[in-house]
Specification:
- The chain is of the alpha/beta class and 219 residues long.
- Helix 1 runs antiparallel to helix 2 and helix 3 packs across helix 5.
- The N and C termini lie far apart (47 Å).
- The N terminus is likely disordered.
Length: 219
């Protein structure tokens, strides 16, 4: 990479510009902008606890959508109603699709809700924000890369249990967890699109060396 090109990358806030310029020379791999991902993580944590159905998660969703739209990405909402131990809860998965030469697709997924806890302020830096932010930056990074397969990024709602742990309130046929991913699969079966999924990568709790301290806010 030349010094001039390096300068372009440093000055530009858009990784895509840097990646595009580098690719024309056939050298550098796409650059994941960790500072920008970190900013997104901090913004999500600033909304406070973000359980499924909460107004804080609605704000988080609006933030993700706004940032992705600013990067030229189209976000589709996948709304559904989940039957949970606390009743019917409206949830929304977010989806960004980057079409490839083939309709066969790879899913990049993670959840953006946080676990509801009564006895602590759980802001989920590792567990909820890290996956949400990582997917945002990955989508921005890969947006302008040529693709053989279609890439689909999915931010799942309602991954966390409403009860204390995943099994406490589970009933046969109705687990208390992974509401968003289960709905996504159900929907893909109904629409006959399940077969085009060739691989799925799920991210969660990235860099969680001490996630207890990263995820709880001690006021
Ligand atoms: Zn998680």
């Amino acid at each position: 990479m030349t010094r001039r090109l390096l300068l372009l990358c440093v000055l530009s806030l858009s990784t895509a510009v840097c990646v595009g310029a580098a690719d024309q020379r056939g050298s550098a791999a796409p650059a994941f902008n960790s500072s920008r991902a970190w900013d997104d993580l901090r913004q999500m944590v600033a909304f406070g606890p973000r359980p499924a159905g909460s107004s804080a998660l609605k704000s988080t969703r609006a933030y993700i959508e706004k940032q992705l739209a600013a990067a030229g990405l189209t976000v589709t909402e996948q709304p559904f109603t989940a039957t949970t131990p606390v009743g019917q809860v409206a949830m929304i998965n977010l989806i960004v699709k980057l079409p490839g030469r083939r309709t066969d697709r790879i899913l990049f997924t993670g959840h953006y809700d946080t676990k509801p806890l009564k006895d602590s302020v759980f802001v989920g830096a590792s567990d909820g924000a890290s996956s949400g932010a990582m997917l945002m930056e990955l989508a921005r990074t890969l947006k302008d890369k040529p693709r053989e397969l279609t890439y689909e990024f999915v931010w799942f709602d309602g991954e966390e249990a409403f009860c204390k742990d995943w099994d406490e309130c589970a009933r046969p046929g109705n687990p208390d967890n992974t509401y968003g991913s289960r709905y996504y699969v159900e929907n893909a079966k109904k629409t006959g699109t399940l077969g085009s999924i060739k691989a799925m990568i799920l991210v969660d709790m990235i860099g969680a060396k001490d996630h207890v301290h990263q995820d709880h806010r001690f006021d």
